[in-house]
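Workshop exercise sheet. Pairs work together: one partner reads the sequence aloud, the other fills in the structure field after running the prediction. Swap roles for the next sheet.
Pair: D.N. / O.F.
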Amino acid sequence: MRPWLRVFLVGLVLWVASVIVTAWTANSNLVPTVVLFGSFLVPVTFVTWAYGRARSPEVTVETMFGAFVTGGALGVLGASLLESWLVRPSLLMYVVVGLIEEGVKLAALMFVSRRLIRRTTKDGLVLGATVGFGFAALESAGYAFNSLFTSAGLSLSQLVETEVLRGVLSPVGHGLWTAIVGGVLFSAGGRLKGRVVLAYLGVSLLHALWDSMNAIAIAITLVLTGQVWQFQLLRIGRVPGVTAAQVHVYTILEWAGLLAISLVALLWLRSVSRSGR
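Structure field:
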């Protein structure tokens, strides 16, 4: 059995067991176990898979561990500080978030790879993905923890739903975006050349589109299927109800948008990988 598959299966069994025992015993002390296993399962699996890919001997287990933990922690803490200072509700809010989060991950990658003597595009892809998945794991843990608290009390089911959804989407999120920038950065010798800046701006845009897809899908749904009474309520500042058909249209548009963003990023990653061969 391949190492990454073994890691995934063992982690999945432990996570499911922790969920069942927590639900059975109603022991809130086990909630951190559920959060950690669920949030780190997919990121650690993909980092294990990336380690088995072609890479230079310089990218050791210690290097990747440092990229995952240090890079992820620096990214999350840096993004949290900058977003608290710079992000305000506006039409460009998600653009600012994308620039901040992709920027701190790029800075974290440059920090953890500063002592590497030889840099290849493949190594940049691997270490970039590792930093991105470290960021994703810690961010998902925060989202899962927040989802636990509802007006009706603690909700284990909502926590599990959040972790499953973020686990499914994480391979085409932070890990993928930072892998792209990492590959371009290493192909430029680790220096901030023009193509690295363009790659950073490009993945920041993908990030912004990903985060805003909910609002974009709502807007397009209203344009395509909006009723007169709904627009009248919006004009006076009230939130209108929606029809069952509009819910279906919105869901299709949101997932189609996320799929399109993912395909663009995957094709870009493939192009970066091929250019480095």
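Discussion prompt: DSSP finds ten helices and two strands in the chain. What would you look at next?
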